[in-house]
Amino acid sequence: MNTKNIFLLLFLNLGTSLLFAQGENDNWYFGYKAAVNFSNSTPAAITNSAMETLEGCGSVSDSNGDLLFYMSPQNIWNRDNQVMTNGNLVSYMDTAQQLAIVQNPANDNQYYVFTTGVNGIVTSTYRINYSIVDMSLGNIGSNGNPLGEVLYRFKQIPVLDDAGNLFTSEAITIVPNTDGVSYWVLIPNDKRLYAYRLDANGFDNGNPVISNLNAPISGNHYGIKASPKVYYSHFTHYICISPWSDNNAWGAPDSDFTNQVYSFNAATGEIVPDFYLEANALRTYSAEFNKDASVLFLGAKDLYAVDLNNSFGTSVHSMMVYDDPQPYSSGSGMAIQRNAKGDIYFSKNFQLYLAQILKPDVFGPGIGYDLNAIYLGGTGSTEYGLPQLVPSFDLEGHRTMLKQSNPDQKRMVLMLDQEERKQRLQMKNIDIYPNPVSDLLTIKTDLKIENVSVTDISGKNSNATFRENKVDVRNLPSGSYIITIETKEGKTTKKFIKK
């Protein structure tokens, strides 16, 4: 190795060490009173959170890793676990998937916080807003320093589109501009991406840079994630946007999720046509990139990995990392989030543990997962959301190590769930009635039934007999049950109620 390469290697390692030494993202607060500290080599549960939120959440610490505040779409709590002065937000539903926090480029004591609305609803209540938190103000806390305050003049200012109108989305993320002094606040809406500049002059409300998404479906968006910086000649980040196809996607029988991965240029705030990947799946809406943007993870019920470095044209490499055994009707959900150290965690809803992807940086069968990676202390549990990283300017500097974009990476389509789609079509040929039922449940199908089993919601087998396409449920207690019907084409699960 020559002297120049050794110097470059040392420089890159130093940049990475400086990046990881920052403590702004050391504390995650999420779900039902759940929180984790990442300051040490072994993550530790925090058990004094006051927050209960189903999805959207965020938290920020100072450079030493000491908590400043955490928030849901409804409240902002200070480090003493009290609602911050002026921290009661308009009473949003907590089902908005994302919110975002970023330091004010003009004032190190201030933070912009962005809350999203509910998809499909635009009112004075359900809308995208921003507020400013000032940590030099507020009551004095237990450590003798101010606890922060939401500025009255900058509380829940509505974000406006290019026509000056309110609009809605559950998706928002923030990407540093390449100039090192400003950020892009990215919000997808229908088939357009709005990129708002945030700099020392403030938030450029109503004046976004707009990119057309050319998405296969229109309407609502669950989430948006940006990759770490990449060094291609025409773009700086991958952006993954996860919309759904109707207004009632969760568990609806004909709802499709899709994920679009675009190439984004943080110098201009625009999507550029170098890269596009459409990943279709019935069971994914949450996304995350690994630390070098070589692997994309997609999940909700199940968890997939996509090899971004080695996918070209019609050859897109993907694999299933985790196959959730529970039926989708049970409400299986997932949020995926990378921490500042490059570790990736995912939250299976209503669990006492935070799960982890074990080897996210090498695509292949050894990726692995641990559903019980971090015990949350017994006082908290996961829900459907995890806090996004608070962004910071690129500490590696403006390097000129550029790669040429590969033209074969344009317009790729990946069907993550071909087998599942096939089974879903078969499910349409299987029905059960009456539902609710009191004595005999009839299975209507032209397929040959090979086996039938009935379990309660907890998964415990129930005493029900099957004969001639009828299931005798007279001995079952009243309640909800899952019936699994096996044919040579596969398994179908349906929910029924015993009266």
Could you explain the architecture of this structure?
InterPro entries: Secre_tail (IPR026444). It comes from Chryseobacterium tagetis. Residues 432-497 form the Secretion system C-terminal sorting domain. Residues 1-21, 246-255 and 395-401 have low confidence and may be disordered. It is built from 2 helices and 37 strands. Strand 2 and strand 3 (44-45) form a beta hairpin. The protein has 499 residues and is mainly beta.
Residue runs with pLDDT of under 50 for 5 or more positions: 1-21, 246-255, 395-401
> Span from first to last CA?
75 Å
- The percent range for helix content is under 10%
Count the strands?
37
Q: How many distinct helices?
A: 2
Determine the mean pLDDT.
Answer: 84
Our Rg estimate from Cα atoms comes to 24 Å
Biggest β-sheet strands, sense, barrel? 5 strands, antiparallel
The fraction of residues assigned to DSSP E strands is 35-45%
Short description:
The protein has about 500 residues and is mainly beta.
Features:
mainly beta, 5-stranded antiparallel β-sheet, 37 strands, 42% strand, disordered N terminus, T9SS type A sorting domain-containing protein
Draw up the topology in text.
Elements: H1 3-21, E1 27-30, E2 34-37, E3 44-45, E4 58-61, E5 67-71, E6 75-78, E7 83-88, E8 99-104, E9 107-115, E10 129-134, E11 149-150, E12 157-158, E13 173-176, E14 183-189, E15 192-199, E16 202-203, E17 209-212, E18 221-226, E19 237-243, E20 257-265, E21 270-281, E22 284-289, E23 295-300, E24 303-312, E25 315-322, E26 334-338, E27 344-348, E28 353-357, E29 369-375, E30 412-415, H2 418-427, E31 430-433, E32 440-445, E33 449-456, E34 465-467, E35 470-472, E36 479-487, E37 490-498
Parallel strand pairs: 21-30
Antiparallel strand pairs: 1-2, 2-3, 4-5, 5-6, 6-7, 8-9, 9-10, 10-11, 10-12, 13-14, 14-15, 15-16, 15-17, 18-19, 19-20, 20-21, 22-23, 23-24, 24-25, 26-27, 27-28, 28-29, 31-32, 32-35, 33-36, 34-35, 36-37
